[in-house]
């Protein structure tokens, strides 16, 4: 086999389908995020980022930066080892306590990312619990799917958010067979929210554990930023709550919060926890500062809601089609990968607006979209620019609009 020909051939196919991914080279500006500098060959341009998962701008917050600077100045750069081999620093211990408290659980366990936390925790639970059946929502994130697959446990997918289908699957099993229901709160591509309470009811009825990915909700929902389960008063009904420190908390890392016994079990058996160097102490310190701040302050959450509502209303006013949902994510549907990429390129080059196109395999073919994530740090002028540019492009590209009467 000619290996290089194989690689380039596969990449050409991706390009032909419009699914080849190009990463924008961005340099955020401290204090003026969401503004950033975009380098493109020899060109440099100022852009406004409209697709960040740093939903609240916490990656720029002075408490977070202060805690990170202080940690570097007092303890240095890296953790120096796995958690087992001298890598457990005081910053990790404090952060795990903050996270357990955030979710009202006995314990929490840190991982190097949300991806790793799902992969390691789900993989270990499903592999180690004898004859475990995993029931997985059809739209679960890749990190959950990979963890479940890695476990080699039996997995049955239930139709997205479909509790009747889930019940059918549960009912067909012996009551005493171990079962694990894996699902999300806010699904990040459509922005819809899972029926957490109904799923917990089914888990009780059919003797199953529940594993909830709150990655797109922690920091953003609930009086203390504990997520949708906190907002709905359901945290104590979930076996495991999983989250990230890299999105609304603005730093990096992932975690699970659960009982002491379950966290200790994962700590003791999960390869993806045991055999990798711990997060740098400064990262843990920054994340802890972010979690702590958002427990006490609802200001950012209120501002965020208000901006999201405003952007939706402005898009409605000019007939730009976006999917309605109960979350903070605004998917503007394009439905074609080449057009989606083209719109994104023009927005960047002509309007200084950065919105990454979301194409297959992140979303199903035919549902390609621009996924807009307003934040408290977007100004009125930013919103004016965004809506003006989209309005212009929708006319130029002859894209479908919502007829005014149908709105
Ligand atoms: C981003 C994401 C993850 C992974 O979290 P990271 O901290 O970015 O690794 C897990 N689950 C969902 C639903 C996500 O969108």
UniProtKB/TrEMBL annotation:
Q: For this protein, what reaction is catalysed?
A: succinyl-CoA + glycine + H(+) = 5-aminolevulinate + CO2 + CoA
Q: Does the keyword Transferase apply?
A: yes
Q: Which GO terms describe its molecular function?
A: 5-aminolevulinate synthase activity; pyridoxal phosphate binding
EC numbers listed for it are 2.3.1.37
Q: Which cofactors is this protein said to need? A: pyridoxal 5'-phosphate
Domain Aminotransferase class I/classII large residues, every copy: 46-390
Pathway listed for it is:
Porphyrin-containing compound metabolism; protoporphyrin-IX biosynthesis; 5-aminolevulinate from glycine: step 1/1
Q: Which domain of life is it from?
A: Bacteria
Pfam families the UniProt entry points to = Aminotran_1_2
Keyword Amino-acid biosynthesis (UniProt):
no
Query: What keywords does the record list, in alphabetical order?
Result: Acyltransferase, Heme biosynthesis, Pyridoxal phosphate, Transferase
Which biological process annotations from GO are given for this protein? Answer: protoporphyrinogen IX biosynthetic process
Q: How does it assemble?
A: Homodimer.
**Family the UniProt entry places it in:** Belongs to the class-II pyridoxal-phosphate-dependent aminotransferase family.
Q: What protein name applies here?
A: 5-aminolevulinate synthase
Protein species of origin: Octadecabacter temperatus
């Amino acid at each position: 086999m000619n290996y290089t020909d194989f690689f380039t051939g596969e990449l050409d196919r991706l390009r032909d389908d419009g699914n080849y991914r190009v990463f924008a080279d961005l340099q955020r500006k401290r204090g003026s995020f969401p503004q950033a500098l975009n380098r493109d060959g020899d060109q440099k341009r100022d852009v406004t980022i409209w697709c960040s998962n740093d939903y609240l701008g916490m990656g720029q917050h002075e408490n977070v930066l202060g805690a990170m600077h202080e940690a570097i100045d007092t303890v240095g750069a890296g953790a120096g080892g796995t958690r087992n081999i001298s890598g457990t620093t005081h910053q990790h211990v404090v952060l795990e306590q903050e996270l357990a408290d955030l979710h009202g659980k006995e314990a929490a366990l840190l991982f190097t990312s949300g991806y790793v936390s799902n992969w390691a925790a789900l993989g270990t639970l499903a592999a180690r619990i004898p004859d475990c059946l995993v029931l997985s929502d059809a739209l679960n994130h890749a990190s959950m799917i990979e963890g479940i697959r890695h476990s080699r446990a039996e997995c049955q997918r239930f139709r997205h958010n479909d509790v009747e289908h889930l019940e059918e699957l549960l009912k067909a099993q012996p009551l005493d067979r171990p079962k694990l229901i894996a699902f999300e709160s806010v699904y990040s591509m459509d922005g819809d929210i899972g029926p957490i309470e109904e799923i917990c009811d089914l888990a009780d009825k059919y003797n199953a554990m529940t594993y909830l990915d709150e990655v797109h909700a922690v920091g953003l929902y609930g009086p203390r930023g504990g997520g949708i389960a906190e907002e709905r008063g359901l945290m104590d009904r979930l076996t495991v709550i999983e989250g990230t420190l890299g999105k609304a908390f603005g730093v990096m890392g992932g975690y699970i919060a659960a009982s002491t016994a379950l966290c200790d079990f994962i700590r003791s058996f999960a390869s993806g926890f045991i055999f990798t160097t711990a997060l740098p102490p400064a990262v843990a310190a920054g994340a802890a500062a972010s979690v702590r701040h958002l427990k006490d302050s609802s200001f950012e959450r209120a501002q965020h809601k208000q901006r999201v509502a405003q952007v939706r209303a402005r898009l409605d006013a000019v007939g730009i089609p976006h999917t309605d949902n109960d979350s903070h994510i605004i998917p503007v549907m394009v439905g074609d990968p080449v057009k989606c990429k083209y719109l994104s390129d023009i927005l960047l080059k002509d309007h200084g607006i950065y919105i990454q196109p979301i194409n297959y395999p992140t979303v199903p073919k035919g549902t390609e979209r621009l996924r807009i994530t307003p934040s408290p740090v977007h100004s009125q002028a930013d919103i004016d620019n965004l809506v003006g540019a989209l309005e212009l492009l929708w006319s130029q590209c002859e894209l479908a609009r919502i007829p005014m009467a149908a709105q």
